[in-house]
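Q: Hi! First time doing this. I have a protein sequence and I read that you can turn it into a structure. Is that right? Here it is:
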Amino acid sequence: MKTKAINADRMGTESTGKLLFSMSAPLCLSMLVQALYNIVDSIFVSRISEQALAATSLAFPIQSLMISFSVGMAVGMAALLSRSLGEGNRQKAQDACYNGIFIALCGAVVFLLFGLFGTKWYFSTQTSNPVIMQYGTDYLSIVCSLSIGFILEVTFERVLQATGNTFYNMLSQCCGAIFNCIFDPILIFGLCGLPAMGIKGAAIATVAGQFLAMILAIVFNICRNHDVSVIWKNFKPQMSVIREILSVGVPSFFMQAITSIVTYIMNSILIAYSEAAVTVYGVYFKLQSFILMPIFGMNSGMVPIIAYNYGAKKKDRIISTMKYAVIASTCIMLLGTLLFNIFPEWFMKLFNADGELLALGSRALAIISFHFIFAGFNIVVLSAYQALGNGTYALIISILRQIVILLPAAFILGKVFGINALWWCYPIAEAATTVVNIFLLRKTYNDKIKML
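A: Yes, that's right. Below is the predicted 3D structure, encoded as structure tokens:
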């Protein structure tokens, strides 16, 4: 182990406002670039055809599941790593890193098998349109089969975040996303003398960017991370460490995987109205990521700060960090609500929308965006639960919001009042979740923070 001064020490001494900004700003920027890539990717795909855009919307639940696994396991690893550094236990921090990488590799094997054998079946459960099915199978089989690039990218970037090296995390993410944006049109439409690959080109550009980001994240860890090593030396899986990672990672995974399940069911509900409704739902997810990604970036900077100071038993720093995060996230969300209500048609036209798609999408974006008002607070609180080792609360909230409230509300509102009323399920679910979160946050404070 290198003997340089531990970069993570600043998480226990530096002013919390300044620390949160310095750790989150690079992550927010990289997340914005990532969100921009997602939007640009869909804009190019929409130029192929509306069926191609619908296919990527139907593929989203599986991509979301991949993200859920990667982020969930990485959150569990990073929380244990940061907490161990806060306790001064560098060997346990190293063990958390090694075993986190091992878990990531196991997940990549599962997605590889699905990419090779499961994608055609998956699309057959959602649509009978042969064009959409072919587009979707071509796209998703490539993304899943080569998912190891994305899964390890997330894992190694979380190691950088957990040790306070967020600037290098930003560089790796930005380089991968920019590569993606450049090669998307080249591979899709056959520019620069290359053959036109259509939707397969979009998938290849995606995984190539992910592999580039993974390689950079590994290099930055080797060259710049002096707290833990990512090079395996005499590694053997340690079940005690794996259990600790999974105790936080599994609830985090299921919390995010619920989104995949809900999206799948929502697609099934919406396709009964029209394929345009499914496309609108997919467009909304791409656009809302541009609002949510900065908050996710800030939370990625917040989690190691809270976990470190929880391990170091510094109550005031935990509370102060959460306050700054809630204020910042609420401001971002209010801005998002205004943008979605002032420019909904302009946003839809980015995706080549006209006619029914334009009218339906403009109304949907304006209505759904009202849930942003409550979402900023809820997202920060859920991340705080994970940082404090209370991932079960985050899972409970996610089940309540999406399974217990959102889906029944969508079904009932759609059946009784029609497709335009269906979108109100999001503001209703988010407002109800806020009430429950306030209660659980107070309980968490009394159980875990008050006595520090």
